[in-house]
Every structure is written in C-alpha cells, then in structure tokens.
Specification:
about 35% helix; single chain; about 30% strand; 6-stranded antiparallel beta barrel; about 280 residues; alpha+beta
Length: about 280
C-alpha cells in the first residue's frame, strides 16, 4: 500500500525538489538562463512575424486596380495634410529655438527616431508588453520612450541582440509625469490593473481638487516633460472619471487609453542622442 501511495505522490515530490533547487540557483545564473532562452526563441517569433507580413503582402496583391487607385487618392490626401503639419512643425521649432536663445535656457534632450515592427504581444495580467524586431543592432537603449501616431506606447524595458521588449503604458510598472490639457499643474500617471481582454486603462494621482472630468466630458492627458524620459506634449489618454483620494487633499482618476494599443503594427522608439559637449572656454 505504501509503495503505491509513494508512486502517486512521486510527481509532486519531483516538482517540489525542482522548485527548491531553482530557488537555490544564484540570481546571476537565472538571468543568464532567461536571456539565453529569449535569444533562442527570438528567431522563431521573428520568422513568424515575417511570414505574417508576407501573407499581408499577397493578400493586398489580390485587390483590384480600382481599389489601388482609391487607396492612392486617400494616401495623397493624407500626405498633403502631413506636409502642412511638417511646415508648421518647422516654424514652431524655429520659434522654440529662438526663445531658448533669448531666455538662455538649457537645450532640451534630443532623440533619434527608430521605427520598428511589432513582432508579438503579451497582454496577460502579469505582462503588458510588446516585442519589436530591433535591438542592440539598431542602437536601442533600455528606458527609451516608445510612441506611435496616437501618442505614448510605453518604454523599452529589455534590449536583446535583434529584438527589444516594450513595457506598455497600460502596465502598472509605468509611471509618467503628466499634465491635463490647458493646465500646467503636474500630476502622476500610472498604468492600471488591466484584464487580459478588457480595454486598456490607467490611473492618475495628485489631481487638484478643482479638476472635474467624466465620460461625457473627458479631459485630455499629456506628458509634462518632467523626469527627462518622455518629451512634453505627447498624448497619453483621456481622463474620464475623478474621485477624492483617501487623504482628501487631492483627487484620483481613471484614464482611458487609446484602443489601438492592442493592434499596433509599427512603433517609433525615441533613442536619446548623446549630450553635446560644451566647448572649453579659452584661458584668460
């Protein structure tokens, strides 16, 4: 009878021994094994991503010439709007540089735009992240901001040889100094505890007590530029609800993030440029 019970419990004993052995393994070894596993798995995921792009290419080849002509007309309209936006941006940038010189303000940190294709997604309760098809081979760095046409996407959490992991703005591990549209008072944004298949949301803290917002009258939330990670005036989401905080001195609120966060195909990594070294002053 005893041997039979031991045979039944043998898998659990083996699992327990393996768990204890894993806990005793040094953290450096665990990290090395994890990185090695990621690098071994990355080519498989990248190949699947390239195959998916190839499928999309041949699917588009099946469209008729009329569809392509209509798409070309729509694209021409979008490009015309972008050209006007670029002209306005150049004018604003020149004005900004002139004001910086007049006020003798320190130069803002510069960024290099690195566009990357999304390779895979993980929206489980533990990992709110994307994997992109660029890494150290394109000079990506840990902590670099990641954006899209809709605004803030997240930040680079891990960089590997040919891939990088992006922690999304919906993750509780992401905190951003933010401001509301038309209000210069800084507040704190943090990703929320999002369900796997639900809409992406975040929360804000330290809202002034006079701030009002609702689903019918939301307030736009932008990055403030404080903290030196994200540039200022990048859209984060919409403040759709507010309520008093536990201490009664501030308010907290719920932020609705862009629904397109779950279907991104391309993102842009803002790789920080090295700070320019000021020239040495001439000896007196």
């Amino acid at each position: 009878m005893l041997p039979k019970r031991f045979d039944q419990a043998k898998p659990f004993v083996t699992l327990g021994v393996a768990a204890v052995a894993w806990l005793l393994v040094p953290a450096v070894v665990k990290r090395g094994l994890r990185l090695s596993f990621f690098e071994m798995r990355a080519p498989v995921a990248a190949t699947a991503s390239f195959v998916h792009d190839l499928q999309d290419f041949w699917a588009l080849r099946t469209h008729s010439n009329n569809d392509l002509l209509e798409a070309g007309r729509q694209t021409a309209g979008v490009l015309a709007g972008y050209e006007l936006s670029v002209q306005q941006k150049d004018q604003l940038q020149a004005e900004n540089e002139r004001l910086h010189e007049l006020l003798n303000l320190p130069a803002e940190p510069g960024f290099r735009f690195e566009h990357a294709r999304v390779m895979e997604r993980d929206f489980s309760g533990w990992w709110q992240q994307l994997t992109i098809r660029k890494g150290t081979n394109y000079g990506l760095t840990v902590g670099a901001p990641v954006v899209s046409a809709a605004g803030v996407v997240g930040r680079v959490r891990e960089v590997h040889a040919y891939t990088a992991v992006v922690e999304l703005v919906s993750s509780p591990g992401v905190r951003i100094a933010a401001v509301l549209e038309g209000d210069t008072r800084p507040i704190s944004y943090q990703g929320g505890d999002n369900p796997a298949l639900g809409p992406a949301r975040g929360v804000v803290d330290y809202l002034p007590v006079d701030v009002l917002a609702s689903a019918a009258a939301p307030r736009k939330l932008f990055t403030s530029g404080l903290g030196g990670v994200f540039p200022a005036n990048l859209p984060i989401g919409l403040l759709t609800s507010v309520e008093p905080s536990a201490d009664g001195l501030f308010k907290t609120g719920g932020v609705q993030l862009d629904p397109g966060l779950a279907s991104l195909a391309e993102v842009t990594v803002l790789v920080p440029l090295p700070a320019a070294v000021a020239p040495a002053s001439a000896p007196p």
